[in-house]
Design brief:
The chain is α/β, with parallel strands linked by helices. Helix 1 runs parallel beside helix 7 and helix 10 packs parallel to helix 11. It has twelve helices and four strands; from the N terminus they run αααβααβαααααβαβα.
């Protein structure tokens, strides 16, 4: 439903705001307390059918007012399998590991996947024999999702003006440098978003995947050659639920901090 998608966007934006501010907060305990309160506020608004846009604007003001340190830290772009890159338990608290090692994390959002599915559905509708009415509905759906993304992103622009997400078409076009567009799935998104992260100035890219994942294995091999072209190091992390991979991230970040 429309409310569910708005909730997904709000969650993405609040998490991005958290990742943008927390590494620089002067009082981490105070920040975490404030963040928890803002999350509870948004949950209540979503559950009661309140105004997500207004609430997100209020939350943005609250977070923007948090005192921060003016320091430069390595920026890590996180790509890869959707669930693993976004679930802290599954990826061994990767974002917290990056922050503890002195970096800032920028994770490709969950909404990217939903926008990609709609984009592919719209692009292939004619090839799949969809009627004109069905194709029109898909275009309207795609337009609505992009519009809501722009509206809600604008609510937190004071925090995330330098952490803007590229359009899904832009990401697919970037991924097409390696894969054909009809190579459906997360591989083209992983490669495309990594290329865009490099163009946006990140210092390191973390490619996350579950152990034995075929798209993860495929992109990991491609990154070995592509990282030289991008000019940004890439660390591929395969999570199996047992192995602690945080030392790899810490090693990369320790080296990067010496270059800043």
């Amino acid at each position: 439903s429309l409310n569910v998608y708005n909730a997904i966007l709000a969650a993405d934006l609040m998490y991005k705001a958290r990742c943008r501010i927390r590494p620089y907060a002067k009082d981490l305990e105070s920040f975490d307390t404030t963040m928890d309160k803002q999350i509870s506020k948004m949950i209540s608004v979503i559950e009661t059918g309140g105004n997500v846009k207004t609430t997100l604007t209020e939350i943005s003001r609250e977070l923007k007012a948090i005192p921060t340190n003016d320091v430069k830290k390595p920026l890590v772009g996180i790509v890869g399998e959707i669930y693993v890159r976004l679930n802290p338990y599954t990826n061994g608290e990767l974002v917290k590991t990056i922050e503890a090692a002195g970096g800032e994390a920028w994770t490709a959002p969950l909404s990217e996947w939903f926008q990609y599915l709609t984009f592919i559905d719209k692009a292939l509708a004619k090839d799949r024999g969809r009627s004109l009415i069905e194709r029109l509905k898909k275009r309207i759906k795609n337009s609505y999702m992009l519009r809501q993304d722009r509206i809600l992103t604008g609510c937190v622009d004071s925090i995330l003006s330098d952490r803007q997400e590229p359009s899904i078409m832009s990401t697919v076009n970037a991924g097409e440098r390696i894969f054909p567009r009809h190579f459906d799935g997360e591989s083209i998104l992983t490669i495309g978003r990594a290329i865009e992260f490099a163009e946006q100035g990140v210092d390191l890219i973390a490619n996350c995947a579950p152990f034995g994942c075929m798209p993860g294995t495929l992109t990991s091999g491609i990154f070995q050659k592509l990282e030289g072209t991008m000019g940004v190091p890439v660390v591929s992390l395969f999570f199996d639920g047992e192995t602690d991979l945080s030392h790899l991230v810490r090693t990369y970040l320790d080296n990067l901090k010496q270059c800043l």
